[in-house]
Recover the amino acids of this structure.
DNA sequence: CGCTGTGTTGATAAGCTTCAAGAGTGGTGG
DNA sequence: CCACCACTCTTGAAGCTTATCAACACAGCG
């Protein structure tokens, strides 16, 4: 189920609406169907990746199949530098996703541009440690929704490109617990479920207080 | 209890036995008594720090006092770059600790040296996410012991500079659970407690299998 | 229009936390 | 040097949160 291989289809190259990396060779946008692998753990690391549309999950597996998603990447976000020589994680397209690949001549030349990205990722990861280590189920989901809302421009209505299973594997919860918490938040009128993957935030303050 | 301020005592400057950062202004070693603050959340970030002796905890707090330690730093390790403009975390000396401060002229100039450190930190943090999100108490403690052993040269006997409370706050467990797991590992003859802060690993394979 | 995958809800169980008491350790002062 | 004291750690009992197992509902798609 995880890390399946599907041929990539090249889309015609077009200007990215997002910030480009200076000095990097911008490749055409590659299309990844839902569930396809972008890179795998153990693979030689090289290029960076920028999401043009769709969403990506980066995760690690335990031997028995337990999965922890360490990050989601939405349109406009850059990923793939969580690697030294080889990748320590898997990256997969969640839904149909367009990704621009940046081939980097030398990591050293790009380091002044990469460092801020790496630091932002480090801060995000360490903040997520607080969520996983010290917050309960409802606090975790609240923090997740606040984060997703912020990354989608702070709008009341947010789109969740990922399944409940993905959310659970990101928050260290089971799919059932995620579902129950959504129901509880709905009962408290903190959120409204417009569709399975579409949520309206009704009481942002309540979520903020919960999420820390 | 956390983040208390105590005057620092300067030790005479001496060559560090550890790798230095090129182009950084090496300061004399500062001495931090047990429990003293090195930097605080919200403070302006600037220098980097290298542990000469002792150990450091880096953590975040929730409003109600729950604490998540995101990393321990032992002798020879560098920290303090988990910041953009201001620090997002607290750093404290665990026991009596000597720290060499590096004042960086410009982050950009140092970026090629800083990037590998940042990436290592990012990988460590994301691996710790797997522990907190998907492993149970005994697996967490096993992973912690394996990590500590590796960072102390892979010896059978390891010194734990931190309290059970610190270990609990690092692993997302209570002090009581940490203590019970230590007892269980002792009963399984996986470890032997030489003192409260000194442990001998008897069955490394068992710990490795548990820790993932 | 049925089928398949995803999500929800319910009942039960497991694991961890909480609350409480007691034991051990290390440091200090007599 | 020993005894006491404070603090940390360990152990026990009970409760709570979340996981697990199971059944059902719903949505999207061929």
């Amino acid at each position: 189920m995880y890390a399946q291989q599907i041929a990539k289809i090249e889309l015609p190259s077009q200007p990215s609406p997002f910030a480009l990396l200076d000095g990097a060779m911008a490749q055409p946008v590659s299309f990844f169907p839902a569930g396809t692998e972008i890179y795998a753990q153990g693979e030689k690391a090289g290029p960076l990746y920028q999401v043009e549309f769709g969403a990506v999950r980066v995760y690690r597996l335990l031997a028995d199949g337990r999965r922890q998603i360490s990050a989601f990447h939405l349109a406009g976000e850059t990923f793939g530098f969580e690697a030294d020589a080889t990748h320590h994680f898997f990256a997969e397209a969640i839904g149909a996703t367009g990704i621009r690949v940046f081939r980097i001549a030398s990591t050293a030349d790009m380091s002044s541009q990469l460092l801020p990205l790496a630091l932002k990722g480090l801060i995000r990861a360490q903040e997520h440690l607080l969520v996983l280590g010290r917050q309960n189920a409802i606090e975790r989901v609240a923090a997740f929704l606040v984060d997703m809302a912020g990354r989608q421009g702070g709008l009341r209505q947010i789109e969740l490109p990922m399944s409940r299973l993905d959310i659970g594997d990101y928050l260290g919860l089971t799919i059932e617990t995620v579902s129950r918490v959504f129901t509880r938040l709905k009962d408290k009128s903190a959120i409204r479920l417009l569709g399975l993957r579409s949520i309206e935030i009704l009481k942002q303050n309540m979520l903020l207080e919960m999420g820390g």
Observations:
- The mean pLDDT of chain B is 89.
- Residues 2 and 64 of chain B are 13 Å apart (CA to CA).
- Chain B has two domains: 9-118, 135-211.
